[in-house]
Amino acid sequence: MTEKKEYLIVGAGLSGICMAIHLIKNNHSITLIDSGENFSTAVAAGQINPLVFRRMTKSWRVDDYLPYAEKFYTDLEIDTELPIYFPIQIRRMFSSAHEKVMWIEKQNREGFSDYLETITSEDDEYDLAQNDFGSGRIKKSSYVNAVNFVEGGKNWIKNRATILTEKLDYSLIEPSSASYKGKKYDFILFCEGSHNSDNPWFNQFIVEHTKGEVLTLKSDEISEHESLNRKCFLLPIGNKLFRLGATYVWNTPDRTLTQDAKDDLLDKVKLLTKKSFEVVDHQVGIRPTTPDRRPIIGKHPTFKNLLLFNGLGTKGYLMAPLLAKEFVDYLDFDKELDKEVRIERFIK
Q1: Which phi and psi angles does 103 have, rounded to 5°?
Q2: What is the spatial distance between Cα 284 and Cα 33, in angstroms, rounded to a whole number?
Q3: Cβ distance 206 to 250 under 8 Å?
Q4: Is the distance from CB of 317 to CB of 46 less than 8 angstroms?
Q5: Domains parsed from the chain with CATH numbers
Q6: Over the stretch 200-259, which tens digit does the pLDDT of each residue have?
Q7: Backbone φ/ψ region at 94: left (φ over 0), alpha (ψ -120 to 50), beta
């Protein structure tokens, strides 16, 4: 059993919840402080796609991340009795003949065949979306119900640790002793997402603000059997509801809902369905991303008891569970972190 440590975790989004659960399971004492302002986790569609369509490549470390994420979310689902993890097939409508050729070249290749269904005549003739070049189906895709994950995760933690709903006051942190409001901790772990720019100890590590807007549609006519993808995604989430997203606006913390983004999504969805629907919700989030599109994890270069877990970006729901475990293993057992996520890569 590991030596019990006391952690203050700042932020109850995806990274903070995953870290808290893993630390508690390793017998540590946790205080989780959160302002209740979540700009990413609870807004996200939570889709887990093992592929990157633009280059027809596998998502980074997907062979490691995917099985761990599936078990993590299904275990949490059982513990909380909330529906959290939903396997659902993604159908990619090819955007060019070249994309179809790339798919065919890889569909039976070792490493790719686990994720790509072999294209059939039915895929070529699929008629529920605009089908200029055919379509292909993804295996092992899924989505996480973000609202239930946050609610269930926080309840799981609350039953085993302390959660404070308040805004952190940085001026009350003493970094050399890792204390807050006069109370000393072994570690203070910052999982603040796009709020990282406000952090006086970690704001030199760039976590960019990537704005995204999503719509929720309601339709009695659109098929709920699979998620469709071309220039946007149309994801069934049950009860005749669908998430439609998402837009990208780089380097802005602005959370204003815009008509331009709504119009853009409603124009793109015409590629995926001609069925009728109504827009029942419009949301905006800020994704925390890094310049090299890899998370940033580790200890402050000077104050070693201050920790950072951030920059999960668009693949966060895929990566967060295993990366949290690996970070805890690094802290508890001195296991090496993946070199591509280490904070040291940004330290000159």
Answers
A1: -60, -50
A2: 23
A3: no
A4: yes
A5: 6-43+147-206+292-346 (3.50.50.60), 90-141+208-289 (3.30.9.10)
A6: 999 999 888 889 999 999 999 999 999 999 999 999 999 999 999 999 998 888 899 999
A7: beta
